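Incident review: delayed structure delivery

Summary: a single-chain prediction request sat in the queue longer than the usual turnaround. Root cause was a stuck worker, restarted by the on-call engineer. No data loss occurred. The affected request and its eventual output are reproduced below so the record is complete for anyone auditing the incident later.

Affected input:
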Amino acid sequence: MDIGAHLLIVDDDERIRTLLQKFLMRNGFMATGARDAAHARVLLDGLSFDMIVLDVMMPGEDGLSLCRDIRKTATTPILLLTAKGEADDRIEGLEAGADDYLSKPFEPKELLLRINAILRRMPAPPEDATVPQVLHLGPVRYDIERGEMWQGQDPVRLTATEAALMRIFAHQPAEALSRGELVSLLNRDKVGGEPVQERAVDVQITRLRRKIEMNPKQPRYLQTVRGAGYMLAPD
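Output delivered after worker restart:
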């Protein structure tokens, strides 16, 4: 368990929001509640959170819109909560920048497992003595030990799932990995809940290419290998 992690719970249902806060605090987390997207924005401006648990169906600005906006400036992990459970809705959540998706109603224990799994996938803080190993992807560089991506002096923000994919590719550069292998590796540390599907991997690859490639439609570094899968080809 990631003891002490600070979570932001965004849900317009006061009863659910309060119950989740109390449950998570009993399990070792700090938990702050927001009643809607506007309230969440105020809290995000003034506080630092390790993860956001975000309801999709809210009056006014919905969770998907808030998720997209957060992703413009932050890489904080986001877990979406929604009554919708269809595959297309889950894909829409991933495309908005979410790291995982949990359909209502759910068991609180499942939520706890999902939160811990996402936090485990986040890059660990580097040790001071660690000598960084860097992959160069044109103007982009990826620090394997730190799990950080940079373009010049500017950091390139990665979601938890994008960071997990980069770690997988970086440890097997110039080696094609099938969708099935990527699904298996992504699900290896995922406890409970719905597993990552192959279609979701394609969505994540598309998002990564937008951050790596000069022309994402003609990828140079995160290549599609016909009949084999995807391959990271650093300089």
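Verification: The longest strand covers residues 6-10.
Action items: add queue-age alerting; document worker restart procedure.
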